[in-house]
Amino acid sequence: MRRHVGLTLGLICLLLALLPVVVGSIWLPHDPNALGGEPYAPPSLRHPMGTDWFGRDLLARVMVGGRASLGVAVLAVVAGGLVGTGLGTLAGSLGGVVDEALMRLADALLAFPALLVALLLRAVWGPGLPGVALALALFNVPFFARLSRAGFVALRSRDFVLAARASGAGEGWIVRHHILPHLASPLLVQATVALGAALLAEAALSYLGLGLQPPDPAWGRMLREAQAAFELSPWPAVFPGAVLALAVLGLNLIGDGLRDLLDPSFRRLTRPRPL
Amino acid sequence: MLGHLLRRVGASALTLVLVAVLVFLAVDVLPGDPARLVVGLEASPEEYQAARERLGLDDPWPTRFGRWVGGVLTGDWGESLRYGRPARELVLGALALTAPLAALALALALVVALPLGLLAARRVGGWMDLATVGFAQLGTALPEFWLGVLLVGLFAVGLRWLPAGGFPGWAAAAPWRYLLLPAVALALPRGAYLARLVRGTVADVLREDYIRAAMAKGVAGWRVLGIHALRNALIPVVTGAGLTLVRLLAGAMVVENVFGLPGLGRLAVVAAGERDLPLLFSIAVVVGALVVLVNLAVDVLYALLDPRIRHP
Fold first, then answer.
1. Angle (CA) A155 A160 A163, round 5°
2. Of A34, B196, B204, B278, whose Cβ has the fewest other Cβ atoms within 10 Å?
């Protein structure tokens, strides 16, 4: 039971962070872009998170602001994960020159922080969400490619694969029935952790003015707007960041919990043993 | 040993060439017309054609690629459209701030992570261990730029202990005062990650037989921990520190913008905003090369630390 503490805690954190975003797609306390309220009101019953410079309700803006961030992060991890796993599978099963070329390409991709790719796309395409999503997806490709290729190399010479091959199974059949099912849990763990990283990266890019454009709120950009007026009110700088950190914390805890749950070799670390 | 290193250098050189190719492809393959970006939408057809010729866009692609790689290698990285100065000068000038900032942050992160990780690993499941694991989970979830915003609010705007941002140059009095808050904002999440890594690897090593042997023959506890265990745990930690340096470089580029520091990240954001493609490509190549070189350095250190790789 103690083993699931992290997982449970992670789920609670993630649900708490997602709650405002999910509720926000059904019901909002105020119009997130409505002007004219009292500027920089502290948290109160009417405005639980206070208001920003334009008197806009912060809770409503946090609720709406997470939508784009989460959407882009999920999209980037799913797209990058599918492409990366595909390339890793290709490299692992074909081997030889294809393997070498794909892995060098993955190294080269790893050399570019998502920020640089996003800035390149912003320069060519102009600001907007598609560039941010593509940059984050590209960033995820090499991680999934390396993970699935490493799984291949480790599994290729295992007895059950050799037995399948000896009994005449084709490469494609072996990949589908023997390799990919074994890779499912490490890939799931990687996807969970990658989702947290993508959320952080999306917020950083949005802080820098990339991604969703004003007046629609996004967590990262709300923090930039709040920074300029920290002296007048610290609340706008606290809440969007706290919800973001809670979501990432939850995802990381879930990733670790899943790893412990799915991979027994990690469990021994949690067993106490005094020096 | 030599063969191993030569192979690693060869792979790194190949990766560097691929980095240059990817940046080149970014110009060529992505939809968008660099000449149009340079002259703007209202330019006359003559101005547009002149820009195309000036950028050499009408040449066949092997010519363009050769010119691009040749320029990168000979140090001619083109001229910044916004500043009208050689891109190399601007990029290297900005790197002179970003690199020390990342190095300072790495030093801070290690100073936090090594003792915390060691103390936690000493008694896995103890209160020190729980505190370290909690700090590690919390720390890695915090966005660097948010920490930056909060630190500015607290220590610069609120308490007025440190400047809120900007950088007066290395010649000014106490330039480190301007780097301290950004370095702390960068170091906290990375230090949390490293503390966890140190804890995990040291705890693993402490289960080995040679540690039990050392304890049995009466070696002092601190000596077992600090010398026998740490030395053997160093290999994964060096890899982790290398990865951290790469992450710090990317993180520094964001945090510089929080503190208005004129480093690579600030330059890159301005270049992207102004569509200054030659400058942006120079930054991309420099950052890509730095990442490849840090990874190579990690490989070399790895070989030096692990005799099994040195003498296979």
1. 120
2. A34
